[in-house]
Amino acid sequence: MPPNISKLSRDHGTSRETIRRMRDHGIDLSDPAAITAALAASRARHSSPAPAPANAGESIQEARRRREIATADRAEVIAKRESGAVIAVSDVEAMMLILGAELRARLLSMRSDLVVELEGLSGSQIYKALDRRITELLSSIHMKSLNPRP
């Protein structure tokens, strides 16, 4: 009578599929020593890493050095962020949205004022008036961007 695969897998602490593969490879399942030897060989093959090919990749020392550099770079960025020397991209995005919305609103509100202010002026006078108002507006927005916190 053939050995019970489920019982053998429980007895040897492995899966039924492993026992079936051993049977398919010709291991005598009635011999506990043969099963133990086959399992030990299989586990040794799967647990030890394959040797790295010569001149492939980096050495452990190179990998450690690269990791040390990356860790130092990350610590430097964190320190700069905490000191305020750099800010997160999300903070810049939020600030740009606020400034853009304010610029749009102020430009749109300027239209009605300019109609009255520019009425009856010559071309050069209109240019000077527009230049002055636009410069004031952009300078105001620029100053706000330099000091975004109230």
Structure keywords:
single chain; 150 residues; mainly alpha; 0% strand; rod-shaped
Description:
About 75% of the residues lie in helices and about 0% in strands. The protein has three domains: about 5-45, no CATH class; about 55-85; about 85-150. The longest helix is centred in the C-terminal third of the chain and has 30 residues, at about 90-120. It is rod-shaped and about 115 Å long. It has helices spanning about 5-10, 15-25, 30-45, 60-85, 90-120, 125-145. Helix 1 (about 5-10) packs across helix 2 (about 15-25) and helix 5 runs antiparallel to helix 6. The chain is built from six helices and no strands. The model has no long low-confidence stretch (mean pLDDT about 85). By secondary structure, it is mostly helical. It starts with a helix and ends with a helix.
